[in-house]
Amino acid sequence: MRYSIDWDPDILREFTTFWEQLPKVQQRIVMDTLDDTDRMLKSDPWAVGESRHTDSVRVIISLPLVLTYHIDNRLSIVRVVDAKVYWKKDR
User: Fold this and answer.
1) Which residues on neighbouring strands pair with residue 3, listed in sequence order?
2) Contact 81, 68 (CB under 8 A)
3) pTM for this model (two decimals)
4) Degrees (nearest 5) of the Cα angle 5, 11, 16?
């Protein structure tokens, strides 16, 4: 079964605003990671990530990206409900 990816509009807006402020090199890293994560979630969202709160709410950590998502099996939709980017700080 293939799943569609849907983002909460507010989360997508926040994520886009944050992404636009990153240096180009970091933008590319985030987009590459997001592309990889997107492929995994479309293929089998149950096989990646870890459960949170309920079985259908999961989090996938693929640094620098952390996504929280909800799986709707009936509609074959993965809805991204939170997105964060974490960078390792230089010492």
Assistant:
1) none
2) yes
3) 0.88
4) 90
The DSSP code sequence of 16-63 is HHHHHTS-HHHHHHHHHHHHHHHHHHHH-TTTSSEEESEEEEEEEEET
As given in the structure block, the two tokens for residue 68 are: 């929280």
Structure tokens at 72: 């709707």
User: How confident is the model over 26-42, as pLDDT tens digits?
Assistant: 999 999 999 999 999 99
pLDDT in tens, 35-65: 999 999 999 999 998 988 787 899 999 999 9
Measured distance CA(9)–CA(90) in Å, rounded: 32
Q: Which residues pair with 54 in a beta bridge?
A: 52
Q: Is residue 72 part of a domain?
A: yes
Side-chain half-sphere CA neighbours of 74 within 13 A: 0
Q: Is residue 16 part of a domain?
A: yes
CATH of the domain at 22: 3.30.2310.20
